[in-house]
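Human: Not sure, check this?
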Amino acid sequence: MDFVAEETGGLSRPTSAQQVAAHIRRMIFDQRLRAGERVPQDEIAAELRVSRVPVREAVIALDREGWVTSRPHLGAFVNGLDENSVRDHYELLGLMYGLAARRAVERGSDEGLAALGEIAKELQATSDPERFGALNVAFLRQLLLMAGSRRITAVARVITTNIVPGNFFAEVPGVIRIRKRGVRAVLKALKAADGPAAEAALLELLRTETDSVVTLLETRGLLS
């Protein structure tokens, strides 16, 4: 949840290549493509009614993320997911958003905190995955705004690619409850102007959610 990105609406409108990448991740997640199999780029382009260009761009991005391995003159082949990489993915997200929370304490305004509190209140009141996902994105956007750092926002756009495709909160059992508890802890620390505590709360939230993601991937036979 991954934390944000395509799974919950994203921080920005996805490009064609990002949409193709999301489609290929879903194929792997649903085991329409299995470890070792060649990615059928022409078939995917035809299925999605796009040119080969965004498909090639998607494959390049997925190679960087570790989903596939590109072999010169042979194509791209699916890699199996591994637990270490999954855990590192969420650890990096926790570190990045934890830094944003600490900076939000240092740089945010009372008005910004009040707006964050209103979003959190709505988030706590719903268990609908679609509504929850949208509010989660709004919460994180407001947190980044309060952090006041273009660099942190730029990093967020780069590293918030998804492991679980689709709506993270619909796909991973129990994470709405975990996220609600984590948001309460983060907001409490922010209201107390305790930057280190807010940072620690976000990192702990991501680590806890990672256990649920790993369990899901193991259940679906996706971890090598």
